[in-house]
Amino acid sequence: xxxxxxxxxxxxxxxxxxxxxxxxxxxxxxxxxxxxxxxxxxxxxxxxxxxxxxxxxxxxxxxxxxxxxxxxxxxxxxxxxxxxxxxxxxxxxxxxxxxxxxxxxxxxxxxxxxxxxxxxxxxxxxxxxxxxxxxxxxxxxxxxxxxxxxxxxxxxxxxxxxxxxxxxxxxxxxxxxxxxxxxxxxxxxxxxxxxxxxxxxxxxxxxxxxxxxxxxxxxxxxxxxxxxxxxxxxxxxxxxxxxxxxxxxxxxxxxxxxxxxxxxxxxxxxxxxxxxxxxxxxxxxxxxxxxxxxxxxxxxxxxxxxxxxxxxxxxxxxxxxxxxxxxxxxxxxxxxxxxxxxxxxxxxxxxxxxxxxxxxxxxxxxxxxxxxxxxxxxxxxxxxxxxxxxxxxxxxxxxxxxxxxxxxxxxxxxxxxxxxxxxxxxxxxxxxxxxxxxxxxxxxxxxxxxxxxxxxxxxxxxxxxxxxxxxxxxxxxxxxxxxxxxxxxxxx
Amino acid sequence: xxxxxxxxxxxxxxxxxxxxxxxxxxxxxxxxxxxxxxxxxxxxxxxxxxxxxxxxxxxxxxxxxxxxxxxxxxxxxxxxxxxxxxxxxxxxxxxxxxxxxxxxxxxxxxxxxxxxxxxxxxxxxxxxxxxxxxxxxxxxxxxxxxxxxxxxxxxxxxxxxxxxxxxxxxxxxxxxxxxxxxxxxxxxxxxxxxxxxxxxxxxxxxxxxxxxxxxxxxxxxxxxxxxxxxxxxxxxxxxxxxxxxxxxxxxxxxxxxxxxx
Lengths: 492, 261
Prior knowledge:
Structural class of chain A: alpha+beta
Distance between the termini of chain B: 45 Å
Radius of gyration of chain B: 20 Å
Shape of chain B: globular
Number of strands of chain A: 17
Number of strands of chain B: 10
Low-confidence stretches of chain B: 1-25, 232-261
Radius of gyration of chain A: 32 Å
Oligomer: heterodimer
Distance between the termini of chain A: 58 Å
Helix content of chain A: 25-40%
Largest sheet of chain B: 9 strands, mixed
Largest interface: A-B, 60 and 76 residues
């Protein structure tokens, strides 16, 4: 699988950190021929093959890649699943004839995968386990496969070898009970799965079942108002469907098919799951108003499609018996409308970051479809302030911090006076330093002599009563020769 | 079970106390209560660009007072490039002022026109308990008519509209009150550390009331109240009063020890 990504004709390995050392996680064919294999420390591998090219092992990316391939395979059979770490398994029962037989399907599929730059080995068998074993070891019959094709513990392999078994065919027909007594239940179960005595299903990767509604017109519709009315009718149906599932849409997409083949695409996102038809229509109207090139019906639209690409759970809520008149309690719809008009990145909320470095401890996050309730619940909570203290963090933060000229009594002492934006400030009160160490683990080579500079923060107040958050960047004579000063925030 | 009476901690905390504070406390609160209509438009002018943080904090705290009766969130509308100040609201700072950052939503818009349009929309919608509108520099569109629209919408939906202006001269408006806000020198804590946030307020205009009042208030997060304070002169000279050595005070002092380092 991974060979498609590797440099051609060169030993290549993916490395990962295991038990404190860099070890090889996977190799390409060239490297395998040089005698390298998974588990070998990188230092040893480099000793044997100095020209070895490496890249960090990224299992998540591998998984994402496999998932992409699974989605591709759904074009060939409705039930395809990833077979981790580097395989796909498909149930082609009842699908092969559509491609002209199993062999045709097999060649079409391997050509498709090969065209993407992957080296793939394939096999068709009665059960997923048999297919996997055949794909890995080749051949067309499970019975002539070597014992290694069984994915069981090494101890069982040794026991089987000692008993003189070499090929699977030698044990497949043996009575089950003595085999289980001697080599364990696991072996028997595996053999049953290989020989289709037990029917193991695959768990197919299911595409999310989106709510999709289409409305075709007998005659093209030319007026935008009529189009919106039709969208309204579709949204009402979609709301009922979503309601049956106990879900609400976080995004709504509309495609307008014009009779000359042009397709207009409108999409809106909401801050919270909703089934509120007027709200969705209002958002779509806003979207139409804010389009760079206005909706041009031309000869009219002959079909409209509404999809709900993102949906989340939304429970029914009981209406209040006496609804408060004219008081809107939920800010979500308003924010959605503002996000549609001004762009999703302009509606923000304050989020706490999991860091001690000030600029990462509090961040602004857009309230968009990606900002799910689950993600919000995962965030670090805000630290409650210490009673009795004045505010120790500023209300406004400069991004980036602004450099100031500071006069201090001693180079590593507190500041006495500073000049910022052409104005001098005499410091009459100050508190500090609050030393904030850099996050060396975020830096390249951070563990080896490049940890970044510490900051000494001071809360200062000038004669006029303005309160600033200053910091010295770098410890004098320990980290830098001459430290610079910055103003990082303004206190109330 | 013996029933304990409610224990009221009236002992002044070390470093934060000064004479006559407790008597002044209701005064400032009552005064603000009277002046700041909870469904009105209030303009806060920062004297200089250094006072923007102070004005914003004062506005946020007024919004927080409103949220006590009305749990709707606060919507803070600001320009993306606020006239040369590349500063962003800082969540931990809001929390330190005693606000819950989760009840604040931000809207960062490209220009003053978008800010005014969105603010008017949001005020009419009435989903926010207060609107904090931060504008920098002269705003041609913020006319008497525009503020009148805001005032009408605010009265209808019960929203408090707080217009924070900086680098701007007061212009005719339909606001209920107009304040000039500056940061005031704070009462120092031990070892000369800056103390509680303090604001110097001047009421420039008050529709249907007296104007020209001056007041210095400081915000006490722990009691969640504003507190009036004497003029600046005696602060600089007055030594920080320490309470008599009671066990509580000593313990409190020890707890606060590392801060003075």
